[in-house]
Design a protein that fits this description.
mainly alpha
Length: 65
């Protein structure tokens, strides 16, 4: 890793952190059930931009490499 720090994401409704299991469920909903980012954001009580970032980083959607 080149100086990156792991970002913590917190739910808007109860301020609990998003777990690895939640991230796994987000990826499965997006990839296999074709759920939109806004649907996933509503389900997990996050901002759409946070969901976009989480899914982009986990699926290898980086610009470099």
């Amino acid at each position: 890793m080149t100086g990156r720090t792991a970002r913590k994401y917190f739910r808007k409704d109860n301020k609990k952190p998003v777990t690895d299991e939640d991230i796994y469920h987000m990826l499965m909903l997006h990839k296999y059930q074709r759920k939109s980012l806004s649907e996933i954001a509503r389900k997990f009580s996050l901002d759409v931009s946070d969901v976009r970032t989480i899914i982009g980083r986990r699926t290898g959607g980086s610009c470099c490499g």
